[in-house]
Amino acid sequence: MIDVAAKEAEIAQFLHAYPQAADAGRGHPALRGCEDVRWSEFRGCPAAIPVLLHSLLDQAAASEAKRVLSNAMHNSIREMNAAMPTVLPFLLRLVVDPHVPGRSKLVDLLVTAAQFAEPVDENSEAAVSWFGSDSDHPEREQCRAVFAEHASVVAMLPQELISPAGQAALRQAAGLV
Predict the structure, then answer these.
(1) CA-to-CA distance for 157 and 154, rounded, in angstroms?
(2) Is 79 helix (H, G, I), strand (E, B) or coil?
């Protein structure tokens, strides 16, 4: 179930708790262009995604910003938001910066996106019933394309930031295996 109002309320609560966080990432090259995206045009996506992306660079707020961003990028426990392919390049560029606080948490978000991006076995009635068909969720293939485009980043992620299973999921999504 998509509840944009709930996502927006959660972002507002985050900003109330961390009012300084939105300015933390201003000017960071990894986030160049994030404010130019019309986030609210994606079904179920709040407009304030740039605030969360910038907040990932605030030492005090990074963990909570990642949690709120993760919630905003999922429509349910079975479905990622259609904006996820657009968010991924920003996250991939952030995760290679060793000065970004909580990089391992960002890697966790990337792993989750890679797992959600896996194709659904169209021959499995249960899988299609539970996750929907790939034709109904083009964001899966779009995410795989983003991972493939950034395969060099995926390949050089520090092993200490990622579990072997997470690394396998990312490498699969990036077409490296």
Answers:
(1) 5
(2) strand
pTM, two decimal places: 0.90
Long-range contacts of 114-119 (CB under 8 A, 24+ apart): 114/143, 114/147, 114/166, 114/169, 114/170, 114/172, 114/173, 114/174, 115/169, 116/79, 116/80, 116/84, 116/140, 116/143, 117/80, 117/141, 117/143, 117/144, 117/147, 117/173, 118/169, 118/172, 118/173
Q: Using DSSP, how many helices (H) and how many strands (E) does the chain show? A: 9, 2
pLDDT tens across 8-26, in order? 999 999 999 999 998 998 8
Cα 86 from Cα 89, distance rounded (Å): 7
Residue with tokens 């019309």: 38
CA distance 157 to 14: 29
Region at 157 (left for phi over 0; alpha for psi -120 to 50; beta for the rest): beta
Residue-wise pLDDT tens digits, 111-159: 999 998 887 767 767 766 666 666 667 888 999 999 999 999 999 998 8
